[in-house]
């Protein structure tokens, strides 16, 4: 499997999008099944336009894509983008695990 690295701008857009609880909830809902923005708007105490803005942020981050079905736009999750963010976090985790192992080795030497 080839994993494309994230640019700093891509990582910023993804983590900015996921920093908001409403956007994380929208992502979770559309990861289970594609939903129209109208259907999504029924789950939140905010205007349709506000939900559209949240979906737009997720779309700019590459976390969702929209499919036109008649008069509606159905929102679908893009799990590959989330996977790339997870890969980045796992790379940071490996760095910290190596540091902890280095500290453990130093402590064992004493």
From TrEMBL:
Residues 3-97 form the HTH arsR-type domain. GO terms for molecular function: DNA-binding transcription factor activity. PROSITE patterns: HTH_ARSR_2. InterPro entries: ArsR-like_HTH (IPR011991), HTH_ArsR_DNA-bd_dom (IPR001845), WH-like_DNA-bd_sf (IPR036388), WH_DNA-bd_sf (IPR036390). It comes from the Bacteria. NCBIfam families: HTH_metalloreg. This is ArsR family transcriptional regulator. It comes from Thermopolyspora flexuosa.
């Amino acid at each position: 499997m080839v994993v494309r690295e994230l640019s700093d701008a891509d990582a910023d857009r993804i983590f900015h999008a996921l920093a908001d609880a409403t956007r994380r909830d929208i992502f979770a809902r559309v990861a289970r099944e594609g939903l129209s923005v109208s259907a999504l708007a029924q789950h939140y105490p905010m205007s349709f336009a506000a939900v559209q803005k949240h979906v737009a942020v997720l779309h700019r981050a590459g976390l969702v894509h929209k499919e036109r079905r008649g008069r509606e736009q159905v929102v679908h999750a893009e799990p590959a983008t989330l996977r790339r963010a997870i890969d980045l976090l796992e790379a940071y985790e490996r760095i910290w695990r190596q540091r902890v192992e280095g500290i453990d080795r130093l402590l064992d030497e004493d």
